[in-house]
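Re: that chain you flagged

S.,

Sorry for the slow reply, it's been a week of failed gels. I finally had a moment to sit down with the sequence you sent. For the record, here it is as I used it:
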Amino acid sequence: MSKLLDNVCSELQRLPGIGRRTALRLAMHILKMEEVSVDSLAKSIASFRHDIRYCASCNNLSDNNLCPICSDSRRDRTTICIVEQVQDLMSIENTGQYRGLYHVLGGVISPMQGIGPSDLKIDLLADKLLTGEIREVIIAISTSVEGETTLFYLLNRLKAFPDVKVTTIARGIGFGDELEYVDELTITHALINRREVTTNDEL
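Prediction finished late last night. Pasting the structure tokens below so you have them in one place:
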């Protein structure tokens, strides 16, 4: 194999989910691209890595010190949705159903990986709540063991703000899922988050 091709494949394999075959396929695709397109791709990646910033308020990715969401005066500034990563924020934004602010933790508590509360942006969240402007905090984190640990830690921290309403996103059985294949924890959450229905409700 060409040394240049081998180098490109090796670098591509550093990306998550990219194996040797996928790296080779991507490398060959890049080879077929116009040189100007390859230069543009490389420039965009380098610029992204060197120039991206984290919002000083919510820890979201930003081109400067304040992200587009925090600087949007049309958003509800009395509600904050807590998420693990920027990808989770983007998923919620794509629904178009939420118009409040966000707070990105930057991960979840995971003793096995050496990640403790001090490694997350929890103190930054507490500082924001001290302003007294927040009326509701929505916790939207994963249902993994680490996610549950983080949830309980957050709930304990939020007890210091009794005037703030704390909610979590509904957890339960996904649309189209068959009950016999759903794990016990998911069924438990579904039962806890059950809602009353009447014959007039649309299912």
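What I noticed first: The chain has a mean pLDDT of 88.

Talk soon,
D.
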